[in-house]
Design brief:
elongated; mainly alpha; 80 residues
Length: 80
């Protein structure tokens, strides 16, 4: 009986939604950082991120990741 209860928890809608949200965020961060690092040599110096600094480059990277995350969520809006 316990094994059946564990199986029910593993297939719960909450766990599936959490996993989808995690994978959406992971995809957005990985793709966003890849796009940022490909664009970085072409960006002005002010928009380039410096290691261990809070600067405009960090904001540009965050904006790219946010746009990709919104696009992924929009693309998956009809999934249940």
């Amino acid at each position: 009986m316990l094994a059946g209860a564990e199986a029910a928890v593993d297939n719960s809608p909450i766990k599936n939604k959490t996993m989808k949200n995690f994978l959406d965020a992971l995809l957005a961060v990985l793709a966003g950082n890849a796009v940022y690092y490909l664009l970085m040599p072409h960006l002005p110096m002010a928009a380039r991120h410096r290691l261990f600094k809070e600067d405009w480059g960090l904001l540009v990277d965050f904006a790219i990741c946010t746009v990709i995350f919104a696009a992924v969520k929009y693309a998956r809006r009809d999934e249940v």
